[in-house]
């Protein structure tokens, strides 16, 4: 088995903040292999891919359709199990923990943003953003803390520039507003790592730029670690570092190589 480590000393770019260089990765997926069954055949999707991010780093993962980008992101966020390989959080292995421990990590450490927002249509934007904490607390716990949770949701919505839309339902929002709402919902549980799967994939380029501005602001202001999958070179270029995936393997890493 070839272990493909994503070596920070070799892959840092001039645009990467000095503080990020040569630090232990906050999150790392090492030597990941993953296959899916197709009838009687096993189709390999990831063939020893490795990916890591330091605290406060913003990395993008780019590659052709079917190269395994989403699968790698899902493995990293404990949404999917690798067949082979390991996922480390702050240097400690997390993919082999119990189901409940992984559920806890998934809910507390990771925030997820997807291409198609997945906001609940019958709830207002504010209620959508409050939902993760409503689910996390018991009914009584939520009832006791509802004012605090509401204020937290309002603060985050203000941070992503949606304070004027809090009472709107998703159908009354633009695509960019829905995605910023989905980002706010991912952030209310105060994740350390935001995993974004094609966050601009459903948006026109100018709205996509707004979403990238929002993500970059969160990364810069809050030191939020972001791993973003995209198929768009221009979007990928805005991260500190680009990881290129080809047929389930890391093809190359580094900002300059995607130009
Ligand atoms: N749950 C699944 N069951 C079976 N096959 C799957 C599953 N998830 C992904 N695949 C297959 O694995 C391959 C890689 O999928 P993945 O979504 O990771 O690629 P991707 O690079 O993100 O592609 P895209 O850019 O099109 O989203 C694809 O051929 C896909 O059909």
Summary of the model, kept short:
With 259 residues, this protein is an alpha/beta fold.
Helices and strands in order, then pairings?
Blueprint: H1 8-11, E1 27-38, E2 41-53, E3 58-63, H2 69-76, E4 84-89, E5 92-93, H3 99-108, E6 110-113, H4 125-136, H5 139-159, H6 175-187, E7 193-197, H7 205-222, E8 225-230, H8 233-236, E9 241-246, E10 249-253
Parallel strand pairs: 3-8, 3-9, 6-7, 7-8
Antiparallel strand pairs: 1-2, 1-4, 4-5, 9-10
This protein binds adenosine-5'-triphosphate.
Description:
The protein is an alpha/beta fold and 259 residues long. The protein is 35% helix and 25% strand. The chain is built from eight helices and ten strands. The chain has helices spanning 8-11, 69-76, 99-108, 125-136, 139-159, 175-187, 205-222, 233-236; strands spanning 27-38, 41-53, 58-63, 84-89, 92-93, 110-113, 193-197, 225-230, 241-246, 249-253. The strands form two sheets. Strands 6-7-8-3-9-10 form a six-stranded mixed beta sheet, with helices on both faces. It is globular and about 50 Å long. The protein starts with 7 loop residues before the first helix and ends in a 6-residue tail after the last strand. Mean pLDDT is 86; it is low at 1-14. Bound molecules: adenosine-5'-triphosphate (ATP). Adenosine-5'-triphosphate is lined by residues 36, 45, 63, 65-71, 231.
């Amino acid at each position: 088995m070839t272990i493909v480590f994503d070596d920070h000393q070799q892959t840092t770019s001039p645009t990467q903040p000095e503080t990020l260089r040569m630090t232990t990765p906050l999150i790392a997926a090492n030597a990941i292999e993953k296959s899916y069954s197709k009838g009687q055949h096993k189709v390999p999707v990831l063939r020893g891919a490795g990916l890591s991010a330091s605290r406060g780093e913003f990395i993008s993962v780019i590659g052709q359709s079917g190269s395994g980008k989403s699968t790698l992101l899902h493995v990293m966020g404990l949404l999917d199990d690798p067949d082979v390989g390991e996922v480390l959080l702050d240097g400690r292995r997390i993919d082999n923990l119990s189901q409940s421990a992984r559920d806890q990590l998934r809910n507390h450490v990771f925030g997820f943003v997807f291409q198609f927002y997945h906001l609940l249509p019958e709830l207002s934007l504010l209620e959508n953003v409050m939902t993760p904490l409503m689910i996390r607390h018991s009914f009584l716990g939520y009832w006791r803390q509802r004012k605090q949770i509401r204020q937290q949701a309002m603060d985050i919505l203000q941070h992503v520039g949606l304070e004027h839309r809090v009472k709107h339902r998703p159908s009354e929002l633009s695509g960019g507003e829905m995605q910023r709402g989905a980002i706010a919902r991912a952030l209310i549980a105060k994740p350390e790592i935001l995993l974004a799967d094609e966050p601009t994939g459903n948006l026109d380029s100018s709205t996509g730029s707004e979403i990238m501005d929002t993500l970059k602001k969160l990364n810069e202001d809050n030191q939020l670690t972001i791993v973003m999958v995209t198929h768009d070179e221009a979007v990928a270029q805005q991260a500190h570092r680009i990881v290129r995936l080809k047929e389930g393997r890391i093809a190359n890493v580094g900002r300059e190589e995607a130009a």
